[in-house]
Amino acid sequence: MTNSGQATDAVLRVLFVCTGNTCRSPMAETLFRKLVTEKLDCRDWELRERGIDVFSAGIAAGESDPATREAVQVMRESDLDLSQHLSQQVTASMLGESTLVLTMTDRHRLALLEARPDLSHRFRMLNRSGADIADPIGGTLDEYRCCAQQIRDNLRIWIDELFRKDA
Hints:
single chain
C-alpha cells in the first residue's frame, strides 16, 4: 500500500510524517487516499493518473516495520487495508519531492524544518488548529479509533481546500 517515496510526475505529492511510521502517518495516508477517491469519484489506482501521489514516513522509523495490529484493525473497520504497510524513515529527497508535508505534531514539523529549512513552506501540521495528533502506540483500540477519527476530521478540511471544485 505505501510506496517507497520514488519520484513521479505528480502534481500533488503529499507526505504524512509521524515518529515511527507504524500508526498515525500510515493511517493518515490510507484515509487520505480513501477520502480523495470519494471526493474525485475515482479508484485508488487512478490517483497517480490524476497526478496525485501519497505516502508516509517517520522521523525515527525503523525500516520495514509493519503497522501496529491496532492500526490495521481500526483501518479494517473502515474497509481499508493497512496490512501490507512497511515503515520507512523520512529522507531529504522525500521532503524535496513533496509538494505538501503534513506532520502529526509540531515536534515533527520542527524536526523537518531543522533538516530542510529551505522547504519550510511545505511543512504543515495535519491539525489546522495547531494541536498535536496524539500517538496511540501502546494504547487501546478505542484510543486508535479516536486517533483515526481525529485524523479523518482534519483530512476532510485539507481535502476540501486542496480539491475545491472551483480550483
